[in-house]
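Hi, here's the filled form for the chain we discussed.

Project: internal
Contact: R.S.
Residues: 128
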Amino acid sequence: MADADRLGKIATIGQDLITTQLTMAMQTPSQALEGTWVLGYCFGIFDALAQQADLDDGAEVFSLVTLGFLGLFADPADPEAAAFIRRSLDRQDNPRFQEGAAAGGTDVFVWVADRTKAPNALFEHLSR
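And the returned structure, exactly as it came back:
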């Protein structure tokens, strides 16, 4: 089982990958996460990081996703943050969510293989 400090560090990597793109697109997490594709993308980022970190316990992956989403908000106790976690779990079967999750996962795997290829699918999606 991964310790809380390790999970926090992994979540921070995902948050940085997401917030950089949100900043470039001039959107806040609250604005962007209303979209099902974006919600899936963020979930995909955290899920791919969990795979890269060899987290295989469902509770660890859920903890990482939870920490990741909460950390996107200035105030992690903001009820809106918890609402987005709930929505990400409720929309797992939604095709748009799945498309976003696949894009987030691909961005992480490409970035891990070649650090010069920064994740950008979220920025591109929001800039359309």
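Let me know if anything looks off before we file it.
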